[in-house]
Write a structure and sequence with these properties.
With 109 residues, the protein is of the alpha+beta class. The protein has a single domain, classed as Creatinase/prolidase N-terminal domain (Creatine Amidinohydrolase, Chain A, domain 1), CATH 3.40.350.10. It has a 5-stranded antiparallel sheet, with helices on one face.
């Protein structure tokens, strides 16, 4: 399921073009404190995804028109910041798959 905003964005893109849209990054306030995370408005509008440091690759002319890259899960960081991500569950709600890589996890939509 692709959001209507993303469908419209792809419709308006040049068919042979590729858009790479980064998500917002987490910001550290001090050594052990993070600012409250707020997703980049454009990224959220197109993807509806709130995970920091993600990358959306949109290529209307390719077989895989929309690919979302997310950072790998870090159990220590999740525990320390009390921030849990559910990438696989999120991907399954969109009838998509997830694939792991060394640096990024790919959600093929």
């Amino acid at each position: 399921m692709i959001r209507p905003q993303l469908e419209e964005f792809m419709r308006r893109m040049d068919q042979k073009s590729v858009a790479i849209i980064p998500a917002a990054r987490e910001a550290t306030r001090s050594n052990d404190t993070q600012y409250r995370f707020r997703q980049d408005s454009d990224f959220y509008y197109l993807t509806g995804f709130e995970e920091p440091e993600s990358i959306a690759v949109i290529a209307p002319d390719h077989e895989q028109k929309y690919t979302l890259f997310v950072r790998p899960r870090d159990p220590d960081r999740t525990y320390l910041t009390v921030r849990k991500t559910f990438i696989t569950a999120w991907a399954s709600t969109l009838n998509s798959t997830t694939q792991s890589s060394k640096r990024l996890r790919r959600c093929a939509l």
